[in-house]
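Researcher: I've been going back and forth with a colleague about how DUF58 domain-containing protein might be arranged in three dimensions. Neither of us has a model we trust, so I'd like an independent prediction. The organism is Jeotgalibaca porci, in case that matters for your notes. Sequence below.
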Amino acid sequence: MRLKKMTRLILFVIGFVGLFIYTMAFPGTLSWFVLLFYSLVAGVVWLSTAVIWRQITVTPRRVRLLSLWPLLIPTLTVHVENKVTAMSAFLRWRFDLETQLPRGHYDTVRIETVGADFFGFFHQQSKRKIAVDIDIYPEIVPLYKLSHHPEIRRYLKVNAPEIRQIRDYMFQDPMKNVDWKASFRRDKLMVKEYEKESEPRLHLIFIGYQSPMFEQLLSVAYSALIEWQSQLEVRMDLIGGDSFLTIEPNPDKAALFAEWQQMDLKHGKAIVFAQEALVEELRTSRQEPFLIVTEAGEAQ
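Model: Here is an independent structure prediction for DUF58 domain-containing protein. You can compare it with whatever you and your colleague have in mind.
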């Protein structure tokens, strides 16, 4: 591909030099017209790839590019981190593309744009590092199988915190506690105030062992935390990492199990999120009762 681009450019330059020499050797109306027309086309083609980005905006799910002028190239290819998107670009100055950054914290995002003129003589390439402050957490996935597991369903229902009172909404109250029926009846926001628990009722533990399904299992654990912490007190421990943003697959099973052996399972009902391949070893490693949730989102 690179050789083809260079060949086109060399042929373009040879053609221009040949026309220039011919015009100088045999000046005339026709030769000058052809040379000027060739030069004009070359200038327009080159300018069509001289893209200057006026603004680049990056959000967790979208990138917006604004050019100083409408582009004259047929297509534009945009690289955002490891994702590549090609789109029509002719006479456009704004480009919106959907993107999903991998999980993690981002201080900068690498963006590269590539385009070529209609004839393939000149190419545009722009590389930028955009300063951002973005946190990408694991994807939220549905927990149909897990939430309907008889033991978990019974446990969540029996141990749900009791409502102490319904009172007027205050600025610091989370919206999840709003009682919409009471709010509708009284024509103002009302919230449910729950009895405070002294310690967690549910203990979630994620074991970060390396596997092809690591991200899927992490999404299941994160989704369970988000859903269940709205119903009762939850403690979350990540074995092999410090947070959902930074934890990475760990191939050292011995180190993970050593940390698992030191884990205190007295902080409520223990639910362990682990790969299917670790189920038997986990069962025989501890005497305390606990549930195991695999990457399929099923409890055992």
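Researcher: What would you highlight for our discussion?
Model: I'd start with this: The chain has a mean pLDDT of 82. After that, consider the following. The first helix runs from residue 2 to 25.
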